[in-house]
Amino acid sequence: MSQDLLEVPEAPARRVRDRGAVWLRIALGVVFVWFGALKITGATPVWRLVADTVPFLPERWFVPAVGVFEVLAGLALIAGVGARVVAGLVALHLLGTFLVLVVQPGVAFQGGNPLLLTVPGEFVVKNLVLVTAAVVVASRR
């Protein structure tokens, strides 16, 4: 098979390259609006996980406050308002989610084995992708 058949023509590749970061910013914003709205309304499946990770903070205001931050950050990302700063804050926020692995290893890992994730553990580890997306968005002009 010819190598040319496997290559994407330059014009479409350039369009995707030019717009990809914008699509990533908007997608990240949508995810944050969605997850944040669930926290504000109390409908999030991770309420306990969040509350138990920071037990020194009152959950009745902390979890919804996290939701407010997520909705506002998501809306800013979608609108492209202060996207670099907001994406940086989102990356820091997401790094905080990894506290679950330290504070609640029994919840994150099966039988204490860090290679065997539970559903909450997978939920946290997938945040590596969201952190990376936020870093890419923060690095773009």
UniProtKB/TrEMBL annotation:
Superkingdom, taxonomy of origin: Bacteria
GO cellular component, one term: membrane
Main location: membrane
Topology within the bilayer: Multi-pass membrane protein
UniProt-annotated location(s): Membrane
InterPro entries in the cross-refs: DoxX
Pfam families: DoxX
Record keywords, A-Z: Membrane, Transmembrane, Transmembrane helix
TM region(s), chain numbering: 22-41, 61-78, 85-103, 123-139
Protein name listed in UniProt: DoxX family protein
